[in-house]
Amino acid sequence: MTQELSWEDPGAFLLDGAVPQKTTPAWDMPDNRENLLPPYLRALPPQEGAHFYGTLSYNRKSQCWVISGEPSVTEMCKRLFPASSGSRRGEARFTAHRRSVEDILWLMLRFPLEVRMRDLSLWTEAVEKTRTHAEKVYIREKNLRHTAPDAAVFAGTLMDFQKEGFQYLLLHDRCLLADEMGLGKTVQALACLAEEKRFPVLIVAPPHLVRNWENEIARFLRLDGKPARVHVLHGLSPYRLPEADIYLMHYLLLRGWKQTLPTLGFQSVVFDEIQELRHAGTEKYSAASLLSDACERVIGLSGTPVYNEGSEIWNVINILDFHFLGSWESFTREWCTGYGNRMVRKPEILGDYLRREGLMLRRTKQDVLSELPPKRRLVQTLDLNDQLYARLMAPVIAELTQWKQSSNLTAAQRQILENSISLHARQATGIAKAPYVCQFVRVLLESGERVLLFAHHHAVFDRYRNELKDFHPLFLTGRETLEEKARNAEAFMQGESTLLCLSLRAASGLNLQKATCVVFGELDWSPAVHTQAEDRAHRIGQRDSLLCYYLVSPSGSDAFMQEALGLKVSQFIGLMGDTPLSPQQQMQDASMARQHVEKLMQEFMPSDEEKEAGH
Asked: pTM of the full predicted structure?
């Protein structure tokens, strides 16, 4: 009786169904290497005297493999592989891709082909790369071990599922890490880059995340005992780049650097939030494609890799591995609801296929919930609009002048002025960074998260309302009546909207455990206020691991408030007021406005001595 072999079982790749000992991983046994591969990848060359149905050659100009021969073989190629059907009579062309090599090897079992002598070394190399990849996909990936990156290079600690992700990235040169938001895609990618040391590296990210990548690189990477050298590209006009290990740029700059980036010798490229490239036909997409072709290692990061329209995921995969999903025509015919149609018929099957072929790894919070703490606090650094901030601070500078000359004011009048200055400066910061906060929240919402967005100033909420109107946000900001407040809270709990915007000090007593993320677009002086806001979602009935994002800017009032709150990334866990404030801490909070004003004085109205010291 013939034994049925399962492609999910490593033993299926062994002759006679023998299974390797568990104590000795299969890939560590070079003598058995040939036996570990699928039959068509370990087939022997045709015997001497065999009939060749044609020849196999490589077209260097078109970068494709060309089968030329009898109609029987070329007709079969065009029937089985429609992407080759555009070739002329007596010829079938295959894009030079690992999958094409697999197809040709399989075809040659039935129709032996003679490889042109001048292309023999190229073909041998292509076959070897294909076999090596097959070993990784079919054998190694099924035995991912919880090994950590080199501690001398990577200064972080990975959870077990993150170690698996790190190992997965090492095994696959071109792949998509599609973990849900909050599971540490950034840190897994940095661990991989640290282990491989394929520098220089280019990281492309949305504008609002460039600053955060800078912070994460400084936090985690050490090269030769020193922080990694980082340069952030600026402007659409290319210039001579300084020497660095890691270069950062945002997607909006790609079109200006389109012709230059492929010539700069980047070994690796990381496309963060790669769904930014889901639409082809733009200069941004074309630049990303050329850059990907020029790099050995390409990593895509996205919590939302499979969209409703097939054209989008096809475009994303093409950046990672060109024509992995075939041509657009063949993809829409087989995967979508009809030829040229954009809707994937069975997206779950497509997702399984991408995972099985080693192109995508995805874990959800539910998959790894046992490894996650009940509540996770993450400090995310965002930019702000410097010009807008400077314009908004003009009235504050006038108030600072009044405060500086306020010797005739009473203590109460002086305190009122201090509070006004601090409040207006914080509002200027909140407004100037609001577009970046909204970009960040938009990604969360598109990933399927249910978000509580906290802020303080009505002017900031107005920005949120305008920029996030597509998501039909609900509001609890103190402007609403008691009836409106109750109705909006209930609407969020019933799923009528996935975004509820709340005032930091107007959410007490609410039960909003349907939220999966809490986002602080602005900060409060009191750690206890943040904890109370978090607890609107982290209550009895919350079964998920709650993500709490603190979005801060390195400039504006955030810098001072971050320092005052102890919002240092390395110290953040446990420092956010989980215990009641002592009387001493309450007194300290009361003096924060005055300290803030003094800080603003140093920044905007330095004394002559401070000016001289600055020079």
From this structure: 0.70
